[in-house]
Write a structure and sequence with these properties.
Layout: H1 2-11, H2 13-21, H3 31-42, E1 45-46, H4 52-57, H5 63-76, H6 82-87, H7 93-99, E2 103-104, E3 120-133, E4 136-149, E5 153-164, E6 172-180, E7 186-196, E8 224-227, E9 237-245, E10 248-255, E11 265-273, E12 277-285, E13 291-300, E14 304-313, E15 318-329, E16 333-342, E17 345-354, E18 357-366, E19 369-382, E20 386-397, E21 401-414, E22 417-427, E23 431-442, E24 446-457, E25 464-467, E26 477-480, E27 482-495, E28 498-509, E29 512-524
Parallel strand pairs: 1-2
Antiparallel strand pairs: 3-4, 3-29, 4-5, 5-6, 6-7, 7-8, 7-9, 9-10, 10-11, 11-12, 12-13, 13-14, 14-15, 15-16, 16-17, 17-18, 18-19, 19-20, 20-21, 21-22, 22-23, 23-24, 24-27, 25-26, 27-28, 28-29
Helix pairs in contact: 1-2
Length: 525
């Protein structure tokens, strides 16, 4: 079953990744998020064994869902089916289906009891990219390895070198080791780590959805301190520790200075987790010597989620803050609102969702320059295994004028055959357009996709971003501008616990000709 889910994810990742992340399009994500989902598909988080910190840091659940899940486990024992997970307070059938590929329900305890285990797992991957452009060649490479023992040990290393002539040393080298106690609910992290506090007004390392691209983008999911093994540097390397004391979590960290002659970053905080409410207090001393303080909260009143954070910094001696709400009405209707303010800028956003249809508008003011953005998205399911996704978005900015873009994506699937047609049209100071056709063939052990693209865009300001299909975990997003065409093919093989992916692409435009080859090998153990 797990193998089929993994193959499904590789074959059509969009719907699964978007459903879990809350993004409106893959272009809203970054490399670290794609790495996270690749890791979770091969190493699902076991919701029967994971601690509160582990459930928060995996990025799948809100604070309320984590507390509700732990409360359910303590009263009723392990969760044995996705239907049972859907019945937990704060979950639903649609959410359970979305996270199914990323969670494990393994249990070693009799029904009605909770279990603990020491599952050993590991994965490793290596990739090489080669590019030729206008007679010049460049090479990029990356590698990653992770190993874990249940919830008590997690270790990993990642390195990456961007395109450069010939071979050269990696420019990114991340590593971390995390130890957690079995009887004492404490975690110690050495190496690279993420610090995701409150709603990000004081500190938030790594990726978070920006703007108002979905209901989930209106608020952040703070995970506290967690290890990081990613091709994307976090900027925090040192030591961190967290201790769970009943409903409280205490955390402290010290990051080494990024430059000589500067102090490191130090932070400390305490969070309280109730069944319907959470609150936190945090303090951060930055490398520049400034002190920041913040308090955040989240309150669930049944159908309404309230959230907010207030922060103060010693350098400006001014307050900044954020507050918002998500209201869940009957008949799958949701309404969200958010407002934030800082000394030099302010912003507000409203969002509305009915079933999978979503609309939002946001306005911002920074140094007397105003910006208004809107987004409307709607999926449509048709007969004959056809699904259509429509998206209209735009922005209006002082001195830059207006820009509007429409995207339509049509997917068809029948057994082992897939087909996608995407069209993206934009109009600002000039016209921009892109269209691609992508047929695919997918079996239990083999997948093959080919894509042909035509595009035109005369301005960099009106470039079109498109997520390129690649090996799992690769965030290959290309900005199309100029006028020309592109063609690519991606093949993947799965042999037991090993996977091989190859990609070749060729593009020709007014900017020149480019030829690329990608190769990736990964293994689970």
């Amino acid at each position: 079953m797990k193998a089929l889910l993994i193959l499904a994810l590789c074959a059509q990742p969009d719907s699964l990744v978007l459903a879990v992340s809350g993004a409106s399009a893959l272009e809203d994500l970054d490399e670290s998020q794609m790495e996270l989902y690749q890791h979770l598909e091969s190493n699902p988080v076991n919701i029967n064994f994971a601690s509160r910190s582990a459930l928060l840091s995996c990025g799948l659940f809100t604070q309320f869902q984590v507390v509700s899940l732990i409360e359910y486990r303590s009263q009723w024992g392990d969760i044995l089916s996705m239907a049972e997970l859907a019945a937990v307070d704060g979950f639903s059938e649609s959410f359970a289906r979305a996270v199914e590929p990323y969670v494990s329900l393994r249990s070693r305890a009799p029904a009605g009891q909770s279990s603990a285990a020491l599952e050993r797992r590991g994965e490793a991957s290596a990739r090489v990219w080669a590019r030729g452009e206008d007679g010049a060649g460049a090479l990029s490479y990356a590698g990653k390895a992770k190993y874990g023992v249940g919830s008590i040990l997690s270790a990993g290393v990642a390195f990456k070198r961007s395109y450069a002539p010939g071979l050269s040393l990696p420019e990114v080298f991340n590593w971390s080791v995390a130890l957690s106690g079995r009887r004492i609910p404490a975690t110690l992290i050495v190496g690279d780590f993420n610090a995701r506090l409150g709603q990000g007004m004081l500190m938030w390392s790594g990726f978070s959805l920006s703007g108002a691209s979905s209901i989930s983008a209106f608020y952040k999911r703070p995970s506290g301190l967690s290890p990081s093994v990613s091709y994307t540097p976090t900027g925090l390397r040192g030591a961190a520790a967290q201790l769970e004391l009943g409903q409280f979590t205490l955390g402290a960290a010290l990051a080494l200075p990024a430059r000589k002659g500067r102090a490191g970053t130090a932070l400390a905080g305490v969070s309280w987790y109730g069944l319907r409410a959470q609150a936190g207090l945090n303090a951060v001393r930055s490398a520049h010597g400034t002190l920041g303080l913040s308090c955040d909260f989240r309150l669930n009143t049944g159908k309404t989620d309230l959230f907010g954070e207030a922060a103060w910094s010693s350098d400006t001696r001014q307050m900044r803050g954020l507050a918002g709400a998500v209201i869940n009405f009957d008949y799958d209707i949701k309404l969200a609102g958010r407002a934030s303010w800082q000394p030099d800028k302010a912003a507000a956003a409203l969002g509305f969702q009915y079933l999978q249809n979503f609309a939002s508008i946001e306005a911002g003011l920074k140094k007397d320059v105003g910006t208004i953005k809107y987004l409307i998205s709607a999926p449509v399911t048709l007969p004959w295994n056809i699904s259509v996704s429509l998206r209209l978005k735009g922005r209006l900015e002082k001195d830059k004028g207006a820009y509007n873009a429409f995207r339509a994506t049509i997917d068809w699937a029948a057994s082992i055959w897939k087909l996608r047609l995407l069209t993206d049209l934009g109009k600002g100071t000039s016209f921009a357009g892109l269209a691609y056709l992508e047929p695919g063939y997918v079996t239990d052990t083999f997948s093959l996709y080919a894509r042909a693209t035509l595009f035109t865009s005369s301005s960099w300001d009106e470039r079109i971003y498109i997520y390129e299909r690649d090996a799992p975990g690769n965030f290959n997003m290309k900005a199309y501008y100029g006028r020309g065409w592109a063609a690519s093919a991606v093949a993947g093989w799965k042999i037991k616990k090993q996977r091989v992916h190859l990609r070749a692409s060729l593009s020709d435009s007014t900017r020149g000709t480019r030829l690329e080859f990608h190769g990736q090998y990964s293994i689970e153990f």
